[in-house]
Amino acid sequence: MKFRLNSMEKKWILYDVGNSAFTLLVSTIMPIYFNYLADQAGISEVNYLAYWGYATSAATIIVALLGPVLGTASDTKGRRKKIFLASLLVGAIGCVFLGFTQSWLWFILLFVIAKSAYSLSLVVYDSMLPDITTEERSDEVSAQGYAWGYIGSCIPFILSLLLVLSYESLGLTMKTAMGIAFFLVAVWWIAMSVPLLKSYTQTHYQIVTSGSNLAASFRRLGGIFSELKERRKVLFFLLAFFFYIDGVYTIIDMATAYGTALGLDSTGLLLALLVTQIVAFPAALIFGRLSRKAQSSKLIMVCIGAYFLVALYGIILEKQYQFWILAVVVGMFQGAIQSLSRSYFVKIIPADKSGEFFGLYDICGKGASFAGTMLVSIISQLSGSVNLGVGALSVMFLIGFLLFLKADRM
After folding, report:
1. Which tens digits make up the pLDDT trace of 166-216?
2. For residue 203, which of 81, 348, 333, 384 has the smallest C-alpha distance?
3. Sign of the dihedral through C-alpha 370, 305, 121, 217
4. CA distances (Å), origin 219, targets 69, 82, 299, 366, 386
5. Domain segments of the chain: what residues?
6. For FRET with 241, which of 102, 122, 153, 305 sits at 20 to 30 Å CA-CA?
């Protein structure tokens, strides 16, 4: 039977289309612009990659501190949409200002703010999934979110890429072209969010009976850590997710920075990552359909294994064509591991506490990649080789695989 999305599911998916444009900007054009600013300031290639990794890690720490609190607060009746809107606006406005920043240090600081706000909006967005669909449909709805996000984000990306690559023929400076590109992404992000903001209704929630909403949120947050002792499947899944998804997001966040540090052609890198988005679209849909016949846990393990091999491949990567191979393979498994992990988590947590649990989920994953970026940055600086830094991510995937295997057997 053909799978058909209902109206609310489509509007929820549109936010994936909107926010994915910012994700693509972060993993492609943004590091190149930072490299331009850093080069003007006399910063070496190894330190440039390390500073970018440290900035991404800083955003993770912020999300780790605020994500559970805002996620828990969003479980309170009537709060989810307001928190979502606030995070969205801070992220989008930060994106606009990034395009007009000429100091590498201010660029890093604004990046941390925008990236943190973006990630916090995803804590709330992911927790909306039980409100907009059923458990039986969650695998495919989640997969379609990522799939359409990948292909939809290509529209503002291609426009931005044309600006960045042909700014001289248009009579623009590079800085002006970057400013326009970042503005386009912010407008796209907000525009794709409007249908969800207009129609979303919170159906699973907690009711605060006494005291302030903030105090109640902290009390519930304290209780969820105790609850994890009883929900060992959730606990071990989160531990596994922390390791394997940190590796995934490190590759996403640092792919262009990695290729640039190797001295590869910037245009080729951007086009290769565009191919990643295009490949990820059908791949995510295929894995969503496979979830009807195969257990999602088995599919997740296949994806983790593929990423383990990708990390090892990074050790020998030197030439442009090798980066293209990497881009295609990553695209085959990127959307699948993200979407299946999200829907798998929805199935093992209580729906009325989805915000609380997704706050913890986001610490481990979509907020960024603290352990992974730190690992790449430290190993790169100690060894003087970015290849070894990326190859070290294989350890993250191995640990994640073993922990997920244990969680799935509970």
Report:
1. 888 888 888 888 889 999 999 999 999 999 999 988 877 666 555 445 555
2. 81
3. negative
4. 10, 21, 36, 25, 44
5. 7-200+214-408
6. 153
Q: Give residue 88's pLDDT.
A: 93
Q: Quote the longest CA-to-CA distance of the chain.
A: 63
Beta strands in 109-244 (DSSP E): none
Nearest CA to 55 among 107, 105, 108? Answer: 108
Write the Ramachandran bin of 368: left for phi over 0, alpha for psi from -120 to 50, otherwise beta. Answer: left
The rounded distance, in Å, linking the Cα atoms of 395 and 402 is 11
Q: pTM for this one?
A: 0.75
Rounded to whole angstroms, how far apart are CA atoms 405 and 236?
A: 9
Burial classification of residue 384, based on how many CB atoms lie within 10 Å of its CB (0-12 exposed, 13-18 middle, 19 or more buried): exposed
Side-chain half-sphere CA neighbours of 211 within 13 A: 9
Give backbone dihedrals phi and psi of 350, rounded to 5 degrees, phi first.
-75, 135
CA 62 to chain centre: 15
CATH 3.40.50.10470 fits 7-200+214-408, yes or no: no
Residue 326 in tokens: 């990497």
